[in-house]
Design goal:
The complex is a heterodimer. Chain A is an all-alpha fold. In chain A, 71% of the residues lie in helices and 0% in strands. By secondary structure, chain B is mainly alpha-helical. Classes of the chains: A mainly alpha, B mainly alpha.
Chain lengths: 250, 108
């Protein structure tokens, strides 16, 4: 295999190519978000603004759901933070590979960091082939996700405005199904499974709390349960159990 | 909705913070390991807390009967997601089950 064939252009295009399966997966998600948000009372420019500026699918869905329930802005922002704080994990994992980049690169690549792009580029950075342009690969992956998400939101907004009462089609449920598809594959360790069960049960228990506060309480219960279980398993069976966070440098 | 752009600005800020903030501080600040460990449970915890009430409650009341089409379709979609790890397939099967169940079993 040649090691001299890396250019900015080839890295950029490979980044796009390798992200395509995830782009296709995001298409219905973006479309449904656009349609749902306008159905829930967010304006068309506001819905596009969420995709262009926030650019974080699951939190955008949650915000749209909270808007429909008349939740206050501060609580929506706080909930968004809780949901999106996982990106700190991705950034911390990629940071050692991005040390040489200027803020001019770090800001856009940070802004565009999604579950999908992280999943793709973490493998590219790890491959030791001497390429000096891996950040161009990262850029390609980021840009294609961003453009796709924005366009799908736009199409969804138009559909949501032209087709009356899309909610009767169960669009809210499409969000739940999407989330199910995202978390089920992660439930393969016992602490993760416990997190899901405890969070789900607590969410039922605390459902009556005002302003969807039950969501935050339930999430904290789930995180605590998973954290405690993992810590406990690690102390009882240190060799067989888990799992330093992926990519974390000691 | 009123305050819409305030909401968008706030959401933008709290989202870029964990994304870019950690990159900006590169090497200068090490994230404490327990925090790193706890963060890994956040997505599953938050999303589970959203999904379960959505599919198990009907108008705020627990409904675990076959009359609850969301529950049925959610269980089917969950099983598909578990076995196939395919997001697109999960969405298609989940929505398909919802509509089929309503049309065929519950009679529209």
């Amino acid at each position: 295999m040649m090691s001299t064939e890396f250019s900015r252009r080839s890295e950029f295009l490979n980044g796009i190519r390798d992200t395509m399966p995830l782009v296709i997966g995001a298409i219905p998600f973006g479309f449904i978000f656009g349609a749902l948000a306008v159905n829930n009372g967010i304006s068309a420019p506001g819905t596009l603004g969420l995709s262009l500026f926030v650019f974080a699918g699951s939190s955008q869905f949650i915000a749209a759901g909270l808007v429909a329930q008349g939740t206050g802005v501060l609580l929506i922002i706080f909930t968004t933070f809780i949901v999106n704080v996982r990106h700190a994990l991705y950034s911390a994992t990629l940071a050692p590979h991005m040390k040489h980049l200027s803020q001019r690169w770090l800001f856009p690549l940070g802004f565009w960091l999604t579950d999908e792009t992280f999943a793709v580029v973490v493998g590219r950075y790890a491959r030791a082939d001497g390429s000096r342009y891996k950040h161009w690969y990262h850029l390609g992956s980021s840009v294609i996700m961003y453009v796709n998400w924005s366009l799908c939101t736009l199409v969804g907004v138009v559909a949501g405005q032209t087709i009356p009462d899309l909610s009767a089609w169960g669009l809210n449920f499409a969000m739940d199904v999407t989330f199910l598809g995202m978390i089920m594959p992660q439930l393969r360790t016992r602490p993760m499974l416990l997190t899901a069960v405890v969070a789900g049960m607590s969410a039922l228990l605390f459902y009556g709390l005002p302003n969807k506060l039950g969501l935050i309480v339930a999430a904290l219960c789930g995180i605590s349960a998973g954290f405690a279980a993992e810590t406990w398993l690690a102390t009882t069976k240190p060799t067989t159990t888990t799992a330093p966070p992926e990519g974390q440098k000691e | 909705m009123p305050n819409e752009w305030l909401m968008i600005a706030g959401m933008t800020l709290v989202t870029i913070l964990p994304r870019y903030g950690v990159l900006a501080l590169l090497g200068r600040v090490e994230m404490p390991r327990p925090l790193f460990q706890a963060l890994r449970f956040v997505p599953v915890a938050v999303l589970s807390a959203i999904i379960v009430p959505d599919i198990a409650l009907v108008n705020g009341v627990l409904d675990l009967s076959p009359q609850n089409s969301f529950l049925i379709a959610g269980l089917v979609a969950g099983a598909v997601a578990w076995w196939r790890k395919n997001l697109l397939l999960t969405i298609v099967v989940g929505m398909g089950t919802l509509w089929l169940w309503r049309a065929l079993i519950l009679g529209g």
